Automatic annotation (TrEMBL):
Protein name in UniProt: SAM-dependent methyltransferase
GO MF annotations in UniProt: methyltransferase activity
Chain ranges passing through the membrane: none
Organism listed in the record: Fictibacillus aquaticus
Domain of life: Bacteria
UniProt entry keywords in alphabetical sequence: Methyltransferase, S-adenosyl-L-methionine, Transferase
């Protein structure tokens, strides 16, 4: 590979090389399934369940970005959605497929970087991201917004959970410029409600709030150090 920047994509690749956590990092992260990591539990996000229970989200075609071990993709499939679920880590997808097979759910798991997806125009009624966005460097937000603009139907929804700025789980309280000064995402960037609304200003905010803390017996993932947002494509 040459190190000459002659195009926008060359620039993106160069910046990725400075900041992106490599595929091997995430493969190793998911290999030890016994770790007490909240997202390893086979439970969906509390806000996602609430959107479905309240009738805001109804069955259609869904794309789960950074699906991990499949907990939200499985929940959507169980509630009538046709689900494509993508992740960079093969070990996370292996785990997700095992869980889906146990329930006989026909989820389409895709081993790819989300920015390398071949997406159909207006293909999805729902695009959902739980914990992927805060690991994406600022220069890739434009590429991320292009995914939503292309693949989400008019009248479709975008749902997201991410670190609260300065929260206990992570959520680095640094500026976008500081990311490049330090060449680090500090374990994951933090956001405020206002910042999420500003970043996704092409979409109409339906709800942006902290997640609700839930008890173990509820069978949900809910931690108030995470933000939950739901947006509508007008």
């Amino acid at each position: 590979m040459t190190e000459t920047i002659a195009s926008y994509e060359d620039l993106m690749k160069m910046l990725d090389s400075l900041l992106r956590e490599p595929e091997a990092f995430w493969d190793e992260f998911y290999q030890d399934r016994s770790k007490p990591v909240p997202i390893f539990a086979d439970t969906p996000d509390e806000n996602l369940k609430a959107y479905i229970k309240e009738g805001i989200l109804t069955p259609g075609r869904a794309l789960d970005l950074g699906c991990g071990a499949g907990r939200n993709a499985i929940f959507l499939a169980e509630h009538g959605f046709e689900v494509d679920a993508v992740d960079l880590s093969q070990s996370s997808l292996d785990w997700a497929r095992e869980r889906a097979r146990e329930r006989n759910l026909p989820i389409n798991f895709i081993h790819k970087n989300i920015f390398n997806l071949d997406l159909e125009e207006g293909a999805y009624d729902l695009i959902y991201d739980s914990g992927c966005f805060h690991h994406i460097a600022p220069h890739r937000r434009m590429s991320y917004l292009e995914i939503l603009d292309k693949a989400l139907k008019h009248g479709g929804y975008f749902g997201i959970t991410c670190f609260v700025q300065g929260g206990k789980l992570g959520g680095a309280d640094i500026s976008d410029w500081e990311v490049y000064r330090t060449r680090s995402l500090m374990g994951g960037l933090g956001f405020t409600e206002e910042k999420l609304i500003r970043i996704f200003s092409s979409l109409k905010p339906v709800e942006v709030r902290r997640m609700r803390d839930v008890s173990k017996g509820e069978g949900l993932l809910g931690v108030s150090d995470l933000l939950a947002g739901l947006f509508l494509k007008r």
